[in-house]
Amino acid sequence: MPLEQILEWIPPGSPDAALAREVDFARLPAHVAIIMDGNGRWAAKRHLPRVEGHRAGIDAVRDAVETSARLGISVLTLYAFSMENWKRPRAEVSTLMTLLKRYLRLELATLLRNDIRFKVIGRPDELAADVRRELARATERTAGNSGMQFNIALNYGGRAEIVDAARQLIESGVTAAELDENRLASCLYTAGQPDPDLLIRTSGEMRVSNFLLWQIAYAEIWVTDTLWPDFRCRHLLEAIVAYQKRDRRYGGIEPARHTSGAR
Question: Which residue in the list 37, 39, 114, 197 is annotated as catalytic?
Fold first, then answer.
């Protein structure tokens, strides 16, 4: 049972255990997406270089992935590197890519042990060859897993994703009369996956930052002031408990029936 899996992992008597018991495992969000924000501010508060915030953020990634898998979340998508992030200092970008490669090498065994499938969404062909090799290795090694789908958004932009989908449709000869939402959605990076039910943003910022623009049309948004390096199991549990207390109306008057991934 998911509750038992979580409680085995959480220290006895911690506030996290009480939160886990509040979760209704029959109404979990099918897809959780997270905008990981606040690494730079976390470092600045400690008078450290920005890259130290990115290093500390790796622990939060590890915690979010493992907690989500133990809970029974079907899909987790983390926003790791946007197309706009190339504007950052070259040294910072280089460090981010180094940390990404290190994470994949160190965590591959954990992904395999927890039956997690790994996928990159974005434009990975524009990344350096050594980064692409590590991404391809993790994707191939976990392709046979049947548990949680773990998407990492790299060199990603929501508008670019829609443009790529439109180009694919044009190249395949789809006419204007044949085009509809389902056909376009089938060409998105997340094709075949449920849309996010819950979008989490850390650091208190109130914007979606060009992330999954098509897919989050009806996502519930939960914002925390917690900076990403400090994000842990309890914060994810808080978000899920808050999500389960909301009435999802999808533009209608009557509250939607609470079912995991209902549309």
Answer: 37
17 located within any domain: no
Give helix 15-22 / helix 233-244 axis angle, nearest 10°. Answer: 30
User: Structural domain tally of the chain?
Assistant: 1
38 is in which domain, residue-wise? 28-244
85 in catalytic set = yes
Question: Does residue 118 belong to any structural domain of this protein?
Answer: yes
Read off the pLDDT band of 2 (50, 70, 90). Answer: confident
Catalytic residue (one of 59, 63, 85, 210): 85
Q: What CATH number is associated with residue 123? A: 3.40.1180.10
pLDDT confidence of residue 255: 52
Respond yes or no: is residue 37 known to be catalytic.
yes
pTM > 0.90: yes or no: yes
Residue 20 located in a structural domain: no
